[in-house]
Specification:
The protein is an alpha/beta fold. Helix content is 31%, strand content 23%. It has three helices and seven strands. The strands form two sheets. A five-stranded mixed beta sheet has the order 3-7-5-6-4, with helices on both faces. Strands 1-2 form a two-stranded antiparallel sheet. The chain starts with 19 loop residues before the first strand and ends with a helix.
C-alpha cells in the first residue's frame, strides 16, 4: 500500500507535495490521504538524504523523473516550502512522501528539508514492513 501523493506518482507534472498528507483511518488502521490542512505540521529541518529510509522498490522509481527533478533543483534549489514528509520509527526516518526528490538530492549531494509526522503503532509497523520489502528487492 502506498501513501505517496501525486508528486510521486506517474504524472510528469511536479505538484505540491503538501496537497495531501498521510493520516489514519480510525476504523481500519489503514493509511489514507487527507488534505494537509487537517494534519498538524511540524518544524522544517534539514538532513542528509542518505539518512532517510525508502519504502519504494527500485522498480517503482522513475529515472526520468529523478533526472527532471535534479535539473530543476540544480537550477532553482530545493524549495523548503515543500519538504520531504517523514516519520520517525525507532530512531529511523522513513520517507512518507518525496522518494523521487530524495533520490535527486542524493545524486546532487545536497541536504533536504523534512517535516516529521506522527503515525499510529499499526501504521509504523506497516511502514517497517514496506521498508524491509523494498530493501529485499535491492538484494536480488
Amino acid at each position: 500500500m502506498s501513501i505517496e501523493n501525486s508528486q510521486e506518482g506517474n504524472s510528469s507534472e511536479i505538484s505540491n507535495p503538501l496537497e495531501e498528507e498521510t493520516a489514519s483511518d480510525e476504523k481500519s488502521g489503514e493509511l489514507t490521504q487527507q488534505p494537509a490542512s487537517e494534519l498538524a505540521q511540524s518544524e522544517v529541518e534539514f538532513v542528509n538524504p542518505k539518512t532517510l529510509l525508502s519504502r519504494q522498490k527500485p522498480s517503482e522509481m522513475t529515472p526520468n523523473k529523478i533526472k527532471m527533478l535534479q535539473k530543476k533543483i540544480r537550477a532553482t534549489g530545493f524549495n523548503p516550502e515543500y519538504p520531504i514528509e517523514v516519520t520517525n520509527v525507532d530512531g529511523r526516518l522513513i520517507i512518507l512522501d518525496g522518494h523521487h526528490r530524495v533520490a535527486a538530492a542524493i545524486k546532487l549531494a545536497i541536504d533536504v528539508p523534512i517535516t516529521r509526522q506522527q503515525l499510529s503503532p499499526l501504521q509504523e509497523q506497516q511502514l517497517l514492513d514496506e521498508v524491509a520489502e523494498a530493501q529485499q528487492d535491492l538484494i536480488f
